[in-house]
## 1
Amino acid sequence: MRYVSTRGQAPVRDFSSVLLAGLAEDGGLYLPETWPVLTAEDWRALRGLPYPELAARIIAPYAEGSISFDVLLRLCREAYASFDHAAIVPLTQLEDGLFVQELFHGPTLAFKDMAMQLLGRLFDHVLEQRDEHVTIVGATSGDTGSAAIEACRGRARLKVVILHPEGRTSDVQRRQMTTVLEPNVTNLAVQGTFDDCQDLVKAMFADAPFRQDMRLSAVNSINWARIAAQIPYYVYAALALGAPDREVSFAVPTGNFGNVLAAWAARRMGLPIRALCVGSNRNDILTRFLHDNDMSVHGVVPSLSPSMDIQVSSNFERLLFELLNRDAAACARIMTGFRQTGRMDVPDAVWRQAAGLFHGLALDDEATKTEIRHLNDASLYLADPHSAIGIAAGRMFREPGIPMVAMATAHPAKFPDAMEQATGTRPALPKRLGDLFDRPERYEVVPARLEAVEDKVRAAVLKNFA
Ligand SMILES: *Cc1c(COP(=O)(O)O)cnc(C)c1O
């Protein structure tokens, strides 16, 4: 499979190169040159497969020419062996026609593990083939950092350095990162804000000699392999509920548009998906777009669902490119205009197509707590604030006879304060994290200055860990 950039000015690449490159050189995002399409017979043949095998079969056409099916199957089995639920992505019924699929049974209790656990192993495999090493660098306000660290810990070809703002993440979030003691993991507590951390990471990537010497790389949410690894659970749920002989709809709590884009990709592959519902908090750029074609950037408002506190949804560019019938020049023009003006000028015909397939619902914190309370009372279900928003969107747009599956993206124990406000009790951490507060931590405090941070990264990369 070959990959093209949404802006048309970057080299065409294979899966492995796209995996390592992340963003394309022209600022665009990579997409497969053609979409693999399955027939009804093909879908039926996938029914009943264990999740890791289903995942390998769905991802295989995207990795064709780079990674063999046997290797992919082994990596998928290893990736999901660390999950603490036998079904990996269990489905639960909440109401008539309304289901929830839990994506949070991985090591960090959030859906990022679904893709990251595979991504770390894919990186290691490709780097070994090429006899190369890379240093994964990232900034985190909490969740993405721990998923990246869990994905990279102990991998021979990877070093990982994560910057977090000192004293500004929750204790659970910090400890999920700093109690990982493998020598290839470095946590830097930056004396500054999350924005400082992000700026420092950008500055390191912009320092070309440093970037090359340290072989910097990223695993952020625009990496195509992350999207590919998120397609299989939509297939798993749809097959369980009657596809391809019955349509299914999905509801997804959305930030960067990565998770719901994977659902769109499953639909593009021929899975009979009727509607895609996008849930947001007060940072509702997507809902405003779907309602009024108003894709304009507002300031970020902190909410009970911090992983959806976003200004722009970077993966939306992939959908835009597709809805423009892959007109890369038009896509580049629209994205450049968006960057300059803060408002995306989406052609009316494109907006109509998007609004015909996607539905948006935004809930503020009060409505989110009401939804959490309702689910707890009416269905004995404990949903974290992100998942509750997705479920509310699913209920809102459910149609008779068509199962609606809402994606649960985080374990409620990750958000004990919000859960206590909504239900009166604090959920316990699952067994695997029960001793989190007894584990030793390791991190280094560093001033928010580029030279200081680069020194720490250099030391981490050159450290000889025999
Ligand atoms: C990352 C995240 C989301 C948003 O997913 P996108 O792919 O960015 O849309 C939603 N919920 C949780 C808990 C997350 O960690």
## 2
Amino acid sequence: MARMAVVAVVVVVAAVLAGGARAQLREGFYEHSCPQAEKIIKDYVMEHIPHVPSIAATLLRTHFHDCFVRGCDASVLLNATGGNEAERDAAPNQTLRGNGFIDRVKALVEKECPGVVSCADILALTARDSVVATGGPSWSVPTGRRDGTVSIKQEALDQIPAPTMNFTELLQSFQNKSLDLADLVWLSGAHTIGIAHCNSFTERLYNFTGRGGPGDADPSLDPLYAANLRRTKCKTPTDNTTIVEMDPGSFRTFDLSYYRGVLKRRGLFQSDAALITDAAAKADILTAVNSPPEFFSQVFARSMVKMGAIEVKTGSEGEIRKHCAIVNKH
Ligand code: HEM
Ligand SMILES: *[C@@H]1O[C@H](CO)[C@@H](O)[C@H](O)[C@H]1NC(C)=O
Ligand SMILES: *[C@@H]1O[C@H](CO)[C@@H](O)[C@H](O)[C@H]1NC(C)=O
Ligand SMILES: *[C@@H]1O[C@H](CO)[C@@H](O)[C@H](O)[C@H]1NC(C)=O
Ligand SMILES: *[C@@H]1O[C@H](CO)[C@@H](O)[C@H](O)[C@H]1NC(C)=O
Ligand SMILES: *[C@@H]1O[C@H](CO)[C@@H](O)[C@H](O)[C@H]1NC(C)=O
Ligand SMILES: CC(=O)N[C@H]1CO[C@H](CO)[C@@H](O)[C@@H]1O
């Protein structure tokens, strides 16, 4: 009996110590060490996104890809070294652009306060500011992330959800990262901005069952919309260069029309279409489109904060990279 009590106390103390040692993200982490950091980043995004609006989408997506592999630690930005291919060399990531943009933001922040602000936090902040710049909501981004030193292509291939996934697989992928069904529904709403290459969804137009030939389209895609895409956009099954707006008509505006498109069976990917194959997810989407825009703004922001906290490195873990593409020399 007494021994069990001792064991219990030891376990509790160990848990408290582990909890205490693990620093957390918090809003305003740089308010003393680099008070201008968030403003420098926001000003740069607000000034440049109007000239290159496509960058907003890629910055938002880059933060997502970063967080899903080794946590939000800017491993997605690391260059290949020696024989090691990095996350950015994985196929799903080759369509991520905007590294030059992040490098320029980082240089400005380094000039103000050298060695203080992590690339991982810059990714989280530029993602938020990109949403603001495209007309979406703003929110406070908890900061204090540290940068990782490892980036491995295969991990990106294994852990970033594929556009061919069904609802069960998508939910598993999100649950693997401590996100839930609501996070899956709201974060998919990011597809309200940006583009896709034809080869991210081409089998839905030409070769859904593998039989190929006329008529082998995905029945869950609006047939008129599919015909239009075949005629005007993805004219061959092997086109890997043409880009298609994911939310046609408002692909530069962060709004609810992506969800309206999904309800009309006009989501581009199977992963978009999958969201209405689950009753709870579909009910969430219906709630969003039938509510004032503030509803989606709030739930999206909340899920972004959750995503931004996946497996983060804090305190003395990792490092503050000097250049986002390479680890520091010691
Ligand atoms: C739910 C699982 C998801 C899948 C399967 C998925 C898949 C994809 C694919 C295949 C593309 C097109 C890439 C290309 O062909 O160039 C894309 C684009 C995009 N994704 Fe997702 N995505 C998912 C979730 C997310 C999340 C959580 C976010 C951010 C919070 C996000 C943000 C974006 C954005 C903004 C683009 C447009 C990129 C651009 O215009 O360059 N996606 N996604
Ligand atoms: C990272 O790789 C890119 C593309 O290969 C190259 O242009 C860039 O100079 C590299 N960055 C650094 C800091 O080595
Ligand atoms: C989803 O895909 C997996 C893997 O292909 C498959 O085993 C499963 O049956 C599918 N689930 C549904 C509901 O279609
Ligand atoms: C989820 O994690 C498990 C265990 O690590 C892994 O085997 C599985 O492939 C993951 N599923 C997805 C969809 O990422
Ligand atoms: C259709 O898909 C099957 C199976 O994935 C593949 O073997 C075939 O080459 C594809 N056909 C075309 C025209 O892409
Ligand atoms: C696109 O397809 C062409 C022709 O099939 C191929 O040569 C090229 O490597 C592909 N490009 C990419 C980025 O996959
Ligand atoms: C250019 C390139 O390699 N694009 C790939 C991006 O990732 C998707 C899957 O997510 C592939 O289908 C593309 O071929």
